[in-house]
Amino acid sequence: MAVSSSLPVDETDFESEGVTRDAVFLRDKRIVEALLFASERPLGEDDFRFHLGKEAQVDAILAELAADFAPRGVNLKNVAGKWALRTAEDLGYLLIREKHEPRKLSRAAMETLAIVAYHQPVTRAEIEDIRGVATAKGTLDVLLETGWVRLRGRRKAPGRPVTYGTTEDFLDQFGLQAINELPGLSELKGAGFFDGRLPADFNVPEPSDSAELHADEDPLEEDLFVALAEERSGVTEERLEVANDE
Length: 246
Description:
Elements: H1 11-16, H2 21-38, H3 45-52, H4 58-69, E1 74-79, E2 82-87, H5 107-119, E3 122-123, H6 124-131, H7 137-146, E4 149-155, E5 162-166, H8 168-173, H9 185-190, E6 217-218, H10 224-233, H11 235-245
Antiparallel strand pairs: 1-2, 3-5, 4-5, 4-6
Helix pairs in contact: 2-4, 5-7
């Protein structure tokens, strides 16, 4: 299913042969469809333009393909700003036998994941402060293994604790185009997640998963495994205690 290296083709070649611009659009549409079918990952606009050229009507092609696939068993979905073919939601039950048995997250892991999603970038100490209980060392490990949470950087604070954020796989898993599609306070209330009266100053933060580091973050300069080992061994907390003692 490899795409010929001769692409992109100059549209002037088509015009010189009397081929209409509509024919070029249909050719590009077939190429985009083939790329989507063969790809093992969601594709972005740059992926399509690499094969079609800068002048290709990528947005129009994707919109038309999405409409074409809408009534079919496979739909074209926008995932975190990229595009992928997905089984139609109403037919998912037919493929249960093809799926691996899902691993159910613990309540602690779900709470931690929600805090990371809404409060990122966030450190383990901040997660514990929001939850009101200590976070088991294995909880964040599980979320990192799922690929839904990533190490972002280090907080510019004593001990330089690691900061966490969500990934594109998180958006893909929960069917979100962007992190700001997470429900707000009114939606969570309507879904029954909050019972009784809430404090007057209670609010749900506006989530952001920008890849750019915040002003209070430093990049992860060392090996990621070193950062993980520190988190698991509690070195970050030890550094913080030493700094406070000084």
